[in-house]
Design brief:
By secondary structure, the protein is of the alpha+beta class. It folds into 3 domains: 100 residues, PRC-barrel domain (SH3 type barrels, Roll), CATH 2.30.30; 31 residues; 163 residues, Rieske [2Fe-2S] iron-sulphur domain (Rieske Iron-sulfur Protein), CATH 2.102.10.10. The protein is 17% helix and 33% strand. A hairpin with a 7-residue loop joins β3 and β4. Bound molecules: FE2/S2 (inorganic) cluster (FES).
């Protein structure tokens, strides 16, 4: 049985408070800690490892193994070190946990578990995910493999106007649709997105290393050059880890914001560099042109996810 978020909590000798939140391991999707709010108006919330929960006799009561003295040694919750599951959008997590709706926290990636354990869970998650997704993924795989036999599509897509990107070094999302036609099937419209940053000189240097970036077709011919002095930079909306969509989020550690991928919590800075998480490479910079009227056009290049080097697929 799992506790309700308001369950009374007692130690071996006395009651110590009520469950106020639970903390979830985003990879195993299990509760790693319960957070107990001490009585009184001081708003002290202690973070208690789940192993300390001896028993949940009913939904309204939790019994801990420790004494109240030992309970007082558990760390006070640092709320800013966590995001809520609404921020990271882990699909169906609440369904799996069976806790009452309330604040369910996920550690901010910098404070996640040590690497070996995390790698273990990550590898297991990927393996299980791959098995489940294989039949569903077949049409997608077919779609992705098609470019191996076809020349890259280097057509330009207009995605919006740059006046929407007002502040420097803040991610702004443009959405667009592109048509895709499979043999014998009617054309389908696929929703896609890119993130554009109005980059300061420092960020441009971090992205381009002071050199223009060239993009090539299948034969190695240059199809476009992103000039290193153009302030607007477009990143593919697909996370290079396993291809999820990501968001721009502000947190205490990164008050100006970072790109945060909800699937396995990779974090990228405004230059697209990996700050934390399992992503194998930086966000993919797209060929992008901003014309005199401020219209933003891109070539919708796609690279293979999950590998260190960029391997172009589309
Ligand atoms: S897809 Fe895994 S971190 Fe983005």
């Amino acid at each position: 049985m799992q506790p309700q978020l308001t369950a009374k909590t007692r130690c071996s000798d006395r009651e110590v408070g009520k469950i106020s939140k639970v903390i979830v391991d985003p990879l195993s999707r299990e509760i790693s800690h319960v957070v107990v709010r001490e009585p009184g108006g001081q708003e002290i919330h202690r973070q208690v490892p789940i192993e300390q929960v001896q028993e949940v006799p009913n939904e309204e009561e939790v019994v801990l193994r420790c004494s109240s003295l030992e309970f007082g040694q558990f760390p006070i919750l640092d709320r800013d070190a966590f995001v809520t599951i609404h921020d990271v959008e882990i699909a169906h997590l609440e369904d799996n946990l069976h806790v009452e709706p309330g604040e369910i926290l996920v550690p901010y990636p910098r404070l996640e578990h040590p690497l070996p354990r995390r790698s273990f869970f990550a590898n297991m998650t990927h393996a299980i995910g791959t098995l489940i997704a294989l039949p569903l993924a077949f049409p997608v795989l077919k779609y992705l493999m098609q470019p191996m036999y076809k020349p890259y599509d280097n057509s330009w897509f207009k995605v919006g106007n740059v006046k929407k990107v007002r502040k420097e070094n803040i991610g702004y999302q443009f959405k667009f649709t592109r048509g895709f036609k499979e043999a014998f099937m009617p054309e389908q419209q696929i929703e896609k997105n890119i993130w554009v940053v109005k980059a300061t000189e420092e960020v441009r240097k971090a992205v381009y290393g002071g050199k223009d970036k060239k993009f090539h077709d299948n034969k190695g011919n240059v199809v476009w050059v992103n000039k290193a002095n153009v302030p607007y930079i477009g990143f593919s909306g697909k996370c290079p880890h396993l291809g999820c969509g990501y968001k721009w989020r502000r947190t205490k550690n990164f008050p100006n914001g970072v790109f945060l991928c909800p699937c396995h919590l990779s974090i990228y800075d405004e230059a697209g560099k990996v700050v934390d998480g399992p992503a194998p490479r930086a966000l993919d910079v797209l060929p992008m042109e901003v014309n005199a009227a401020g219209d933003v056009k891109i070539i919708d290049v796609e690279y293979k996810a999950g590998v260190k080097n960029q391997i172009r697929l589309l």
